Amino acid sequence: MINKSKIGLLFLVAFLFVQPRIGVPLEVYFGPAGGFNRENSGRLLDMPSGTIASGTLGNALLKLIDSCEPGGMIKICMYSMSDYNTLDALIRIVEEKGVRVKLLLDAAADWTADSRKKILDKVRIAKRKALEAGVSFDFQIKIVTKDSMVARDRWKTLPDGKTIYGTMHEKFRFGESGSSPWILWKR
């Protein structure tokens, strides 16, 4: 007869050998430098151009942009941009493939002003050149302002008196009764 400790050991061994084989598929979350996980940092992307690039967030976004079908649409919401290669790729795909781009930028956060200006200036120049050449250029930019956040009750005054404004995510209502991190707008 087998005692309980041997049965427990058999279950443990069986679990250790079976568990990796029944695991769910791995979902890769990209970070600016490929993520904090060594395996993610070492991942490579096959780019549409035929080149291989490291699995960073910027490269993953470039891959998605370059993979867009002619006449397609790309929608992006962002606070700011630090990798202007992405903006160049968006402008290029609008010009070359007739892709429509809709970009929602945060103007509620003061620290986004410099990036927002660079984006707007670069898109204006590209649009002017396209118009002069008689080429279609559908790159729309919308701005989320502090006033629009106040109108939607997406602001809060902190104990130190500083007022902050919510934009792309549920910023203030975590932990409050009945709150959900999945609600983007209160109204």
Task: Give structural notes.
With 187 residues, the protein is α/β, with parallel strands linked by helices. The chain has a domain at 1-67. Helix content is 37%, strand content 17%. It is built from 6 helices and 7 strands, in the order ααββαβαβαβαββ. The chain has helices spanning 4-18, 38-41, 57-66, 84-97, 113-132, 146-151, and strands at 44-46, 52-54, 73-78, 100-106, 139-144, 155-157, 163-165. A 3-stranded parallel β-sheet has the order 3-4-5. A two-stranded antiparallel ribbon has the order 1-2. The longest helix is centred in the middle third of the chain and has 20 residues, at 113-132. Residues 18-26 and 168-187 have low confidence and may be disordered.
Outline the fold blueprint.
Elements lengths: L3 H15 L19 H4 L2 E3 L5 E3 L2 H10 L6 E6 L5 H14 L2 E7 L6 H20 L6 E6 L1 H6 L3 E3 L5 E3 L22
Parallel strand pairs: 3-4, 4-5
Antiparallel strand pairs: 1-2, 6-7
Helix pairs in contact: 3-4, 4-5
Primary descriptors:
alpha/beta, three-stranded parallel beta sheet, 7 strands, flat
Please mark out the parts with pLDDT under 50 across 5 or more consecutive residues, or reply none: 18-26, 168-187
- The assembly state of the depicted protein chains is single chain
Structural class determined from secondary elements:
alpha/beta
Largest sheet, strands/sense/barrel: 3 strands, parallel
